[in-house]
Every structure is written in structure tokens, then in C-alpha cells.
Amino acid sequence: MTVDAVVLAEASVWILDLDGVLWLAGEPIGDVAAAVSALHDRGKRVVFATNNSSPTTAQLVRRLQRVGIEADPRDLATSARVAASMLEPGQRVHMLAEGGVREALEDRGIDIDGSGPRDAAVVGWSREFDFDTLTAISSVARETGRLIATNGDPTHPTPDGLMPGSGALLAAIATASGVTPEVAGKPHQPMVDYIRTLALGDGVSAVMVGDQPGTDGLLAERLGIPFALVDSGVTAPGAVVDECSVHHRAPDLVTLVAAALA
Fold it and tell me: How far is Cα 14 from Cα 221, in angstroms, rounded to an integer?
């Protein structure tokens, strides 16, 4: 599958996944800083879209800075922010997630630690997952009938291979509670709507770059934009893709950008 450099070159907005595209566990995948800088030099807007709900906004900006990329927080689309947008200020929730979700909920005016009846259970990736936390959050989901999840990714890419992702935790909670989850992140409708509002106005041309056809690729399809698949994360080189239409394929982001801007 060859890269259609003309379509890529004409896109005014590049939406980039993070894990598996820019880095693996924080380690950059090649000279991604130069690739993003080259896009900016050509007048492209770069938006970073991630299902990783753990880092806060400041932590995410610092992670980008550590690999040489300066990012405006307004160019971040995170599943934590999208999940928080699905609740109303003043509501109470039981949360099983890390700092990024807590920050997003607090910014939205959601009560996390207060007492009283809950309106929903909210789940993201967490290192604190065990039988007791599963019991507590599934009970709230069952009682309220509402289970909001940052994402359904079953795995998370690292330099040492795949580790369980938020979707693995969510599967246990959904099974234990019997509640169908409302999923915020890629490729689900809340993230589609969020990115449309954030970056895709009338007449804006864009491309989605990701390593997971089932999330990044389907997001691109639902946004109505081309999908460029990179083989540097979850999807292995040469693997057959059935989940979505792949318009472009490259080993990594650096190669993709070089082809687009040559």
C-alpha cells in the first residue's frame, strides 16, 4: 500500500495518536520532534488525540516536551476530557482512574470524593485495580445504571510488548455490573464530536495518523477523513487490516511525514 503524498501534503490538520506513533512508554519513535516541526513549518496544525487517560494536561505537555515537541494544551484531545464532558457540573461519581481523569472531572465541576448518592461510575486505566475496587465500582454502576469509560483499548503498547489497557478493566466492570458502558474515547461518538469542534471547521482538510485500525482508523472513518496507519505500535508490519479503510501506510511517523512533504 503506497503513500498518496498529494493527499497528505494538502491536509491542513494532522491528528496524531501518541502511544505507538510518537513514542513507546515515553521513548520517541525516531526523530518525531523534527517530523512535527516540519509539519508546523508548512503551516499545518497538529492535534494530539489520545485514549490514554492517565496523565494530567501538564504531564502530557511535559511528555511531549521531553521528546522535543512543544504543544499547546488547546491542541490536546484526551479521552479523560471527553469522558468528563459527558457529565453535568455538580453530579457525583465513583471513579476508578488516575490523575488525568480526576483533573478533567474536577475542572468540569464533578464531585468525586463527596458523600451521598452517585450519578455514575467512571473508569479509566488504573494501577489500583483489584477485587475490592472491582466490587465497589461495579456496585455503583449497577445502582446508577450508568458506566462511563474513557476508552475500550484492550492493550497498551510498550517497548517490552503489549500490556493490559483500560478496556481490560472495563470488560470486568461491565461484566460484573451488567451495565453497558458509554465509551468516550476513540473511535466512539463523543470523541468524534469533540475533535470536530476542536479542529475541523468547514472546509478544513485533515488526516488521522495512528497505529490501531480499530480505534484510530475507525475514528478517521467517522470523521470522514483519510487514515494513515503506522506500523510502529500495536499493528505489526505487514499485518492484514480488516477494521477500516487504510488510505496510507508507513513504517513510522517520520517516514510518513517525509513522504508527504518531499
Answer: 15
User: In DSSP terms, which residues pair with 16 in a beta bridge?
Assistant: 48, 209
Cα–Cα distance measured from residue 36 to residue 59, given in angstroms and rounded to the nearest whole number: 19
* Region of residue 125 (phi > 0: left; psi between -120 and 50: alpha; otherwise: beta): beta
- Which set of grid coordinates corresponds to residue 51? 485514549
In total, the chain counts a number of residues equal to 262
- How many structural domains comprise the chain? 2
Of the pLDDT bands very low, low, confident and very high (cuts 50, 70, 90), residue 249 is very high
**Maximum Cα–Cα distance across the chain:** 60
| Strand pairing class (76-78; 23-24) | unpaired
Residue 81 domain flag: no
Residues 6+ apart with CB under 8 A from 149: 83, 122, 123, 124, 166, 170, 181, 182, 183, 184, 185
Residues 178 and 91 in one domain: yes
Domain boundary among 165, 183, 201: 183
Burial class (CB in 10 A: 0-12, 13-18, 19+), 34: middle
pTM for the whole structure: 0.90
Is the domain of 146 the same as that of 104? yes
Report which residue type is found at 70: E
- Grid cell, residue 228, equals 494513515
82-125 pLDDT, tens digit per residue, is 999 999 999 999 999 999 999 999 999 999 987 889 999 999 99
195 contacts: CB under 8 Å, gap ≥ 6: 15, 47, 49, 77, 219, 223
- Asked if 172 and 200 sit in the same domain, the reply is no
70 part of a folded domain: no
